[in-house]
Specification:
- It is a single chain.
- By secondary structure, the chain is an alpha+beta fold.
- It has a single domain, classed as Glutaredoxin.
- Helices cover 38% and strands 14% of the residues.
- The protein has seven helices and six strands.
- The strands form two sheets. The chain has a four-stranded mixed sheet with strand order 4-3-5-6, with helices on both faces.
- β5 and β6 form a beta hairpin.
Amino acid sequence: MQAFSNVSVTLVLVAGALLAGSPATAAQPGTPSPAQACPAVLQQNVLRLQDEKPQSLCQYSGKVVVVVNTASFCGFTPQYKGLEALYTKYQGRGLVVLGFPSNDFSQESGSNKDIAEFCESTFGVNFPMFTKTTVSGKDASPLFKQLAAASGTQVRWNFYKYIISRDGLAVTSFNSMADPGSSKFIAEIEKQLARP
């Protein structure tokens, strides 16, 4: 009887240890793994503009994401101000603006450091910015290729904007003429923010 009792206690202890530390129970059925929680479009590693340190875009999972290609010497460059205002107004509700400087249209010739200084000193940009990126054509970065495929439209000029839904499944595009403060653009932001 004593031997049986010891075996029972041992089994209970082993079972408890397995349940506590088992990978199978750590992620409950139906709970997405970190890879599943990050939409495919955000499964990208990019370099931060200010210090060129690698960043995973998965950190923005669950947010409404505005992706915009920027340039310092373009007629649309003042849109930085509107993008920053948008970011400031809506970040508390789950919006993030991600800027990708590009020289695809020959209007961003400076170094990453020059671009960072220009954005901060001229327009007070605080939203996340990344290093100079190819955004159009066959050499476009994987992110911009996915955005073009998902929305059915490629970048045609600087300050082309994509709005990615919280789940990453819907991508809406706006051309360079769409000001970040325009009623149509804001309506799409509000619509996406209202969705879970």
